[in-house]
Amino acid sequence: MQEIIIYTILYLLFSICIIFPPIEFISAGFTVSSIFSFLLGEERFDFVGYQLRRTIITSFIHSCLPFVHLVYLLFKYCKSWDSHPTVKLLKYFDSNWVNVANDINEEYRNLNNFSISLSGINKVIMTNSWILNITNYSLICAQISDVALQIIHADEHQISHHEPFGGSVQFVNIEVKSLSGKFETFIIRIQADSFRDMQDKINKPISIAKEVILRQSLNDRFIEAFVEQVRSNPRFDYRNVENLEPCLACASELPNIKLNKNCISHEEIDFDGEPRPLCTQCYCRPMWCVRCMSLIFAAKQDRNHPERWMPGKASCPTCRAIFCVLDVSFLS
Question: Could you list the residue ranges that cross the membrane (predicted)?
Fold first, then answer.
């Protein structure tokens, strides 16, 4: 990369001298007019024709300057990718970098990858084993087992186009550092609401600098309110607790709630003036933990109106029985 930067700077200086030739270039005859004098002819015999030819040739040469730089880079790398910064990085993992590239390509095709893109310039993709930092001019491949992550900064914006209706949003900067020094440290910028999803994907602890304060995501705040309401609901007496299987959603917790109609049914009109469906009894056995059920419930609500989530309704994922928050009971 350093070689490319040096070459680019030198070529940029050379291009400036071609476009705006200094006295030294003019004295040495190193100008477009001097070099292509055999095509331009004599100015004193055909001034207008000379200027027409000169402007065309000058425009052509100037427009070719970026193209020449591009051709050099393509020739340099297509001849052998070994000098490319990304290939040099991949060789740290395996001397035959193609093997590493094939592994990354295979994981990239996985539909469960986590992608972050806050602008059209930078993009970060997280696969099962890699954090791929993509910019206009580089690709950094960081193996998750070789990184240390820390949130180093958080900033909040009251108006953001990343939120519906321009609502407030918090962004966090996450420093990605190589434990073995294979790559230079880089920063991932992500919405705070997506932080938990990212953490779940990489399954690796992310430290938080002591001066950074993270606000809870909308889902986290709803989960707290949902669980608090469920605690105040009547409990469901379930006798076969020993036969419970792991939660169908997370598979890490045992089911601890049952959908049991507790509310009093009466006709209601929703916020859009439409009649709301009546809650019905669910006869499914306990299959969900309270956290997963709260996320299922939230997923059925209008994302643009979180204030309507708690009084909303959803359907049982298996039998489609309609329920509200009052119909969710902890097992006893």
Answer: 12-36
Distance, in Å, from the CA atom of 216 to the CA atom of 207, rounded to the nearest integer, reads 16
Transcribe 278-293 into DSSP letters.
PP----PPP---HHHH
Lowest mean pLDDT, pick from 89-93, 247-251, 272-276: 272-276
If you compute the radius of gyration of the chain from its CA atoms, what whole number of angstroms results?
Answer: 31
pLDDT of residue 220: 81
For 181, counting Cβ atoms within 10 Å of its Cβ (0-12 exposed, 13-18 middle, 19+ buried), the class is exposed
Close Cβ partners of 176 (under 8 Å, ≥ 6 residues apart): 131, 133, 142, 147, 148, 149, 185, 186, 187, 188
Q: Is the pLDDT of residue 120 over 70?
A: no
Burial group, residue 315, by CB count within 10 angstroms (0-12, 13-18, 19+): middle
> Does residue 205 share a domain with residue 172?
yes
Together in a domain, 229 and 307: yes
Q: Which two tokens stand for residue 150?
A: 């820390």
